[in-house]
Task: inverse folding
């Protein structure tokens, strides 16, 4: 069951074009360009899904810095899984910033466990940024905090990757 505060925060930002419904979270993920962060070598993707948003920065050092915000639950976890498989060629370097996540459910934890397995198979060098109780508590309760490289800031995570 989702908490009562689990409503979508509104429409996606950025221009929408294409068929009717494009960019509407009810119709699935939509890619829209975002601003230009520092050290970026590739485009920044903003993926809006039901209750979750991913903004990915391809840095000059080869690391993909993905900022996840919103809810990582049964509805949005498959979209995160799909994004990872489509956007990260193996082997990959990833910093997954979860400080914007306001709900982390078991389906989201499952995606993180899968990433941990990929890392064990040398397909992924990764770290997550988690400094909020909303993310840290489920990681600790399930034991994933001991298996996943958890950092309290982006700089620390980037240095580890």
Result:
């Amino acid at each position: 069951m989702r908490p009562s505060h689990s409503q979508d925060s509104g429409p996606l930002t950025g221009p929408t074009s294409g068929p009717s419904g494009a960019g509407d979270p009810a119709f699935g993920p939509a890619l829209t360009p975002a601003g230009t962060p520092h050290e970026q070598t590739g485009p920044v993707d903003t993926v809006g899904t039901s209750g979750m948003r991913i903004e990915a920065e391809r840095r000059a050092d080869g690391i993909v810095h993905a900022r996840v915000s919103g809810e990582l639950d049964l509805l949005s976890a498959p979209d995160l899984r799909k994004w990872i498989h489509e956007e990260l060629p193996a082997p990959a370097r990833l910093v997954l910033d979860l400080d914007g996540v306001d709900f982390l459910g078991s389906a989201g934890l499952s995606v993180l466990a899968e990433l941990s397995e990929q890392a064990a198979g040398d397909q992924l060098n990764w770290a997550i940024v988690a400094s909020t109780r909303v993310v840290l508590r489920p990681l600790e309760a399930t034991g994933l905090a001991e298996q996943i490289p958890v950092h309290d800031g982006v700089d620390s995570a980037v240095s580890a990757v």
